[in-house]
């Protein structure tokens, strides 16, 4: 096939609706430009409802992976540009259709004549181009209602543009278009997936990780940074808050070590996350909880934990099966990192039988007997270390003073 000189990027349908369209399109455009920074030769052209890329020699296959990570893009197609001559257009049409894998059974041609001086009108061109394709690929059939492939031809002032292959985009909402959230990120399989889904839904996330150094290792923190680095290509760069949780955990454990321990620790984690979220202007907490997965993820447990905070808690995986979650983890390339062995701060002082049905009144009365709790929580917030994790290269990570 002729090498594509251009690519057409289409916004998602949702993006096209309502008064926010302009802002949404601008965000998507910025993310496209960011993703394509490694290819400075590319020129961008914004048109109504789409973005055109002039590839200037950059192979389409090279730009596809970063584009597939831009939320708000519905689809992407390579575009071949030919001279405005019938024969050139017919040749290009036939060779583009031949190059499709898998080969479609049916197709239709849709010609749009922007250039009114082109000698054949769009109806005539549909037949002329369709005929050429059928001669080259006699197995193919025309279906104008539900074709497997639509071959589009745009007759422009200077050239004809042809495209038929359609690559799915990431879909979703443009980054940050639905606000900001704090993602509670462990080293496990679930929370990175929850983070990805939150980002896809238009939330800009900052990650919050609790570690119990020196009880948990430096490697387990590196693992979390590696996970965030897998999320960063979807969000430009992602802030990571590393919360030193040892002191909170030890103090709580010294005061109470029975079956509600996990609930108490999780409530403390939620409170710290809420404080970090508020300071960063986030409006929600995102977790990787999934109903029934473990003792702390029963309805009663999640309720008792969630009530420690005022902020809404979003649980994108709540009704998903593990195998669906793993599929997404594989797609976003976090699975192989998540399954590396690591210590989690919560496995440090596990009670013999964690409660699956914690009673909120009991919890409140235990917490009332911990008058120092608020202070150690505050202290953990103050000692939190924040880094901006960049996609790609560790050398570009930036430390950030939180307060
Ligand atoms: P994951 O695979 O995300 O670790 P999980 O199924 O192992 O989830 P839990 O370990 O019970 O479940 O954790 C439930 C949720 O609590 C996690 O998805 C995450 O959002 C949050 N969480 C747990 N441990 C931490 C941690 N050390 N730091 C930050 N968040 C955590
Ligand atoms: Mg876990």
Q: What characterizes the major β-sheet? A: 9 strands, mixed
**Poorly predicted spans:** none
Based on helices, strands and strand pairing, what is the structural class? alpha/beta
Question: What small molecules does this complex bind?
Answer: adenosine-5'-triphosphate, magnesium ion
Alpha plus pi helix count: 14
Radius of gyration: 27 Å
Number of strands: 16
Instruction: Determine the N-to-C terminus distance.
Output: 56 Å
Principal-axes shape call = elongated
SSE order, one letter for each helix or strand: EHHEEHEHEHEEEEEHEHEHHEHEHHHHEE
Helix content: 25-40%
| CATH class descriptor name of the largest domain | Alpha Beta
CATH architecture of the largest domain: 3-Layer(aba) Sandwich
> What is the total domain count?
2
Strand content: 15-25%
CATH fold node name of the largest domain: Rossmann fold
Task: Produce the secondary structure layout.
Layout lengths: L5 E6 L1 H4 L4 H15 L7 E5 L2 E5 L5 H8 L5 E10 L3 H13 L7 E8 L8 H15 L4 E2 L6 E7 L4 E4 L3 E2 L11 E5 L5 H11 L3 E8 L6 H18 L1 E8 L1 H10 L5 H19 L5 E2 L12 H8 L6 E2 L7 H10 L3 H4 L21 H9 L4 H10 L2 E6 L7 E3 L3
Parallel strand pairs: 5-6, 5-7, 10-11, 10-13, 11-12, 13-14
Antiparallel strand pairs: 1-3, 1-4, 2-3, 4-8, 4-9, 7-8, 12-15, 15-16
Helix pairs in contact: 4-5, 6-7, 8-9, 8-14, 9-10, 9-14
The chain binds adenosine-5'-triphosphate (ATP) and magnesium ion.
The site of adenosine-5'-triphosphate (ATP) has 19 residues, from helix 6 and strand 11.
């Amino acid at each position: 096939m002729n090498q594509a000189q251009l690519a057409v990027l289409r916004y998602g349908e949702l993006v096209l609706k309502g008064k926010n369209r302009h802002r949404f399109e601008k965000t998507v455009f910025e993310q496209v430009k960011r993703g394509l920074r490694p290819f400075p030769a590319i020129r961008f052209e914004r048109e109504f409802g789409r973005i055109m890329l002039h590839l200037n020699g950059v192979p389409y296959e090279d730009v596809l992976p970063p584009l597939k990570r831009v939320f708000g893009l519905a689809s992407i197609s390579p575009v071949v540009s030919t001279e405005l001559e019938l024969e050139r257009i017919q040749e290009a049409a036939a060779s583009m259709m031949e190059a499709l894998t898998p080969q479609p059974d049916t197709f239709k041609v849709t010609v749009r004549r922007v250039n009114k001086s082109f000698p054949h009108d769009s109806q005539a061109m549909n037949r002329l181009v369709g005929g050429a394709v059928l001669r080259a690929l006699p197995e193919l059939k025309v279906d104008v209602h539900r074709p497997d492939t639509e071959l589009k031809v745009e007759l422009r002032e200077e050239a004809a543009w042809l495209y038929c292959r359609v690559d799915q985009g990431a879909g979703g909402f443009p980054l940050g278009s639905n606000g900001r959230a704090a993602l509670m990120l462990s080293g496990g399989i679930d929370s990175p997936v929850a983070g990805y889904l939150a980002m896809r839904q238009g939330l800009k996330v900052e990650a919050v990780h609790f570690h119990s150094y020196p009880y948990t290792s430096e490697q387990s923190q590196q693992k979390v940074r590696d996970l965030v680095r897998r999320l960063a290509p979807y969000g430009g760069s992602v802030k990571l808050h590393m919360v030193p949780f040892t002191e909170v955990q030890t103090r709580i454990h010294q005061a109470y070590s029975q079956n509600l321990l996990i609930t108490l620790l999780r409530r403390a984690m939620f409170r710290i996350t809420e404080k970090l979220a508020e300071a960063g202007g986030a409006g929600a907490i995102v977790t990787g909880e999934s109903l029934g997965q473990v003792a702390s993820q029963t309805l009663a447990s999640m309720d008792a934990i969630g009530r420690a905070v005022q902020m809404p808690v979003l649980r994108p995986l709540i009704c998903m099966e593990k195998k669906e979650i793993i599929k997404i983890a594989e797609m976003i390339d976090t699975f192989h990192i998540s399954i590396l062995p690591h210590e989690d701060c919560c496995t440090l002082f596990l009670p013999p039988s964690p409660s699956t049905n914690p009673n909120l009144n009991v919890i409140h009365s235990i917490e009332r007997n911990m008058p120092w709790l608020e202070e150690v929580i505050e202290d953990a917030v103050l000692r939190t270390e924040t880094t901006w994790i960049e996609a790609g290269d560790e050398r570009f990570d930036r430390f950030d003073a939180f307060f």
